[in-house]
Amino acid sequence: MPSELNFSIAPFNLLTVKQKNLLAQHVDIIYFRSGDIILHEGQSTESLFIIIKGVAEERSNDSGEVYAHYTNDDIFDVRSQLEQSVKHSYHALEDTLCHLIPRDIFTSIYHDNKDFSAYFNSSLATRKALLTQAHQQQNLAEFILTKIDNETIQPSLVVDWNTSLKQVTHLLKEHNVDALFVELNQYDPRHKANQHQLPIGIITRTDLLHALVLDNHQPNHPVGPIATYPIVHIQKHDYLFNAMTLMTRRHIKRVAVLEKDQLIGMLDMTQVLSLFSTHSHVLTLRIARAQSIDELAIAANSQTQLIETLMNNGIRTRFIMELISTVNEQIIEKAFSLIVPKSLHDHCCLIVMGSEGRGEQILKTDQDNALIIKEGLEWHQCHELMKKFTHTLLQLGYPLCKGNIMVSNAHWVKTEREWQHYITKLSTEYNGENMMHLAILSDAHAVAGNHQLLSPLKHLLTQKMQENELALSIFVRPALQFIVPLTLFGKVKKKKEGIDIKQGGIFPIVHGIRALSLEQGIEKTNTFQRIEELNQRNVLEHSTADNLTEALKLFFKWRLRHQLQESRNRQSNYIHLEQLDRTERDLLRHSLHVVKKFKEWLGYHYQIRD
Questions:
Q1: Distances from the Cα of 493 to the Cαs of 110, 487, 496, 517, in angstroms?
Q2: From the centroid of its chain, how far is CA 598?
Q3: What are phi and psi of 498, to 5 degrees?
Q4: What is each CA distance from 61 to 127, 165, 359, 365, 464, in whole angstroms?
């Protein structure tokens, strides 16, 4: 175990030889057990802490807001060394060993060495921004609830297929717009191959520029072949936030607005952001503009209060899940882009799994991720970069996976061919661990790099399981193993610690639906979307699908509410009956009966007799 400071890392590499010797003479070591409070909010402290081994969490005693996690070589609490009072409390999340630097030694060097102090001044400014912006959430709910209407829609400008590029240019200038729609003719091969899509394309100023300058088309060339098809669209009266999410996910700047099947206008990102900019917390912009992990942390560490604001404003849980899933995805993608060289992005694909892969994560849960490497790539620094990426996500508030299902574990980093062999192995060797890994991979969702690398693997997994009755019967068993917390007489079982709503309610639905989706070759990952698809295929009766959807929404809602109330245990899956009113207790009992009936149906469907 190292007993000396590492002077090769910042900011200690900025010290003079004399200052290094001074520190080395006075540094001490202290040990904390998992769960110990390292620093109490409001106390004065005589030392600066540097973690040698372990993890510490900085949180507010009042709100429970988690501001940061610290691990190997991380430094805290610089602020208290200068302000003489600890702003937040610090807790050891596991057995933690720290260096101690006396305050008087630290402050002496801080004032004498400008480069050394500049390093901490930058960090303090970022931390101050975190604290200031943590209180600026309220107005976002107003934007979330704003719907697309006539006031926000640009009128649609439509031309026919034969309109010349010159005419289109004049129309854009005359109407002062950046894009217009193009009606495709009946002979356009693109539309003939996609009859379910609207026979409409879109042309932008950029498209025109490329057509005339880069592709050397003549001004009288028809616009039809150049128009982008099919168009991405959204319905009138949908939420503005959904439009922004759609544009962000698809990396486009405008969407068509439909009323039923009729084109009525256009909505562009500039419009949406101009409406959004009047609100306090432009999350997507902050993430996109982040040039460092510290800047990215401003968005990553503000989510809990945002969720509380949305909950308090009555926003439905599925909406919150979609919002947080989108934000998490962009944070993870941005962290990946800051760590992995851009030249490698097309040669690898970062996937997330578990609740994040299904788009059902609300509060931050353990990291569950893996990496697909394009065949033929020689990437010698991969392991070190993936370890750094895992550490970065930890800094951003995403806890380490207890099962070590992370890219820092070489087992979860493979080439395309290695993943193909691994999936084949999992689907042919029937044991509990293999089935668990299949379940994890079936929820995989690409978030960074070359997303197309995931599709063949998902297709292979589905193909291997779809006709494999034995594997599916083993795969589904965990959904049947946890007891639904109901008494013999159909009442909710009371326990001192509360009801584990994940084991008793959420997991049986999520995993049972996952098994049915694999059987049916459904590659969607979100449980609600899987239920809808199973209903459309008549695998689930309409009433069963509705009951499962409503039960799952209630379970997520109650768990989230209890997690927000239990500020010291944000990952708890327990809910307490005494905190539910009578109507909610009745709904809970009914929902658990829905789960019990679904489990019985699964056992019959897969011919499992336990």
A1: 59, 6, 10, 31
A2: 29
A3: 105, -170
A4: 17, 63, 30, 21, 50
Structure tokens at 421: 């062999």
Dist. CA 423–CA 428, nearest whole Å? 9
**Residue 292 in tokens:** 């460092």
The secondary structure of residue 228, as a DSSP letter, is B
Closest CA to 59 of 99, 93, 85: 93
Distance CA 500, CA 498 (A): 7
pLDDT band at 181 (very low <50, low <70, confident <90, very high): very high
3-class SS letters over 40-103: CCCCCCCEEEEEEECCEEEECCCCCCEEEEECCCCEECHHHHHHCCCCCEEEECCCEEEEEEEH
pLDDT at 130: 38
Q: Which helix (H) or strand (E) holds 158?
A: strand 158-160
The mean pLDDT value of the chain amounts to 84
DSSP per position, 401-460? PTT--STTSGGGEEEHHHHHHHHHHHTTS--HHHHHHHHHHHT-EEEEE-GGGTHHHHHH
| 8 A C-beta contact, residue 90 and residue 56 | yes
Closest among 510, 489, 499, 468 to 598, alpha carbons compared: 510
| Residue (of 412, 363, 405) closest to 383 by Cα position | 412
Task: Return the structure tokens found at 144.
Answer: 């979330």
Specify the 3-state DSSP secondary structure of 161.
Answer: coil
Quote the Cα angle for 377-383-385, to 5°: 95
Query: Which residues, including other chains, have CB under 8 Å from residue 391's CB and lie 6 or more apart?
Result: 71, 72, 408
Handedness of CA 92, 98, 102, 106 (dihedral sign): negative
Smallest CA-to-CA distance from 389 within 411, 357, 367 is with 367
Q: Could you tell me the two tokens for 198?
A: 């609207």
What are all long-range contacts of 425-431, with beta carbons under 8 Å and residues at least 24 apart?
427/461, 427/464, 427/465, 427/468, 427/471, 428/464, 428/471, 430/470, 430/471, 430/474
Torsion angle of C-alpha atoms 48, 54, 58, 62, degrees rounded to 10:
-120
Contacts of 26 (CB under 8 A, 6+ apart): 101, 102, 105
Burial of 544 from C-beta contacts in 10 A (0-12 / 13-18 / 19+):
middle
Q: What is each CA distance from 499 to 87, 125, 492, 577, in whole angstroms?
A: 35, 43, 9, 8
d(CA 250, CA 244): 10
- In sequence order, what are the beta bridge partners of 262? 259
Query: How many CB atoms are closer than 10 A to CB 202?
Result: 21
Crossing angle for the helix pair 542-565 and 582-605, to the nearest 10 degrees = 130
Tell me the whole-structure pTM to 2 decimals.
0.61
In whole angstroms, what separates CA 376 from the centre of its chain?
A: 30
In this prediction, residue 456 has a pLDDT band, given cuts at 50, 70 and 90, of: very high
Percent of the chain residues past pLDDT 70, beyond the cut: 88
